[in-house]
Sequence to fold (284 residues):
Amino acid sequence: MSAVIIDGKKISAQIKDEAKSLAAEFNADGIQPCLAVILVGDDPASRVYVRNKKRACEYVGIKSLSYELSEKTSQQELLELIEKLNNDKECNGILVQLPLPEHIDEQKVLLAIRPDKDVDGFHPYNVGLLSIGSARLKACTPAGCIELIKRSGIDIQGKSCVVVGRSNIVGKPVSMLLLAENGTVTVCHSKTKNIKDVCLGADIIVAAVGIPKFIKADMIKDGAVIIDVGINRLENGKLCGDVDFEACKEKAGFITPVPGGVGPMTIAMLMKNCLEACRIQRMA
Ligand code: NAD
Fold:
């Protein structure tokens, strides 16, 4: 039997519409939620991401401040801009588009963002809250994975969840979020032995490896839920996930496509985070 294809475009559109309603409520109270997006350098992919974020802000009704800085911007200049935005009452969220040029220390920059404006959820303070089960601003892509699962009517509680990948931006936070949903979580990485056997025991697999078609049909059990975070560009220019979609969809219960699965969720969750940041700051 063929799997249910989880429609990330549709679910992300629902979330953006929910965010739009929430933004309208803020507006009715005379508040204009605002996100600052900082881009350093002119990486073409980053430019596209930033443009899409600005578009989503426009749709939802979030004001966006755009800072497009030259590749030569010093770390000090960037830190000064973040400090200015940290102290700007009109600005609720600060997003620094990664990757940064090599001469800038990414960790220093992420640490400089005020935790209640950290809409990417990468600040160690927010990571800490996530790990004690009190998440506030959650990393967007991992939070998007959870929404895809829950909004497809899948209960995570008690399920065997296998996350393949342990990066700080996807693997680790998605593992913590699955744990917070009472999943029984195993994290695999490049040093894990017998990944196939581990995956075969999974009710839910989240793949965040960065290797095209890493998860094969003989690694998943019948009816498993497969969430593919991977975005890999093949030599023919096409996008491909970390899961062998065509083969796995014949065996899985639910599966996300690439593109059109996890990808669109990241920006939708960013919009949600921006409004959550606005709420947190109003409560302070
Ligand atoms: P990363 O390179 O930082 O981490 C990859 C992880 O995979 C590492 O923890 C590593 O241990 C593990 N790994 C590598 N080789 C392995 C192997 N042979 N067996 C088992 N584990 C192995 O990557 P990332 O930033 O976590 O991103 C992962 C994928 O998700 C990439 O394709 C990236 O483009 C994509 N991504 C998508 C979004 C989105 O919005 N949809 C956001 C972030 C990342």
The two ends are 52 Å apart (CA to CA). The first strand starts at residue 4 and ends at 5.
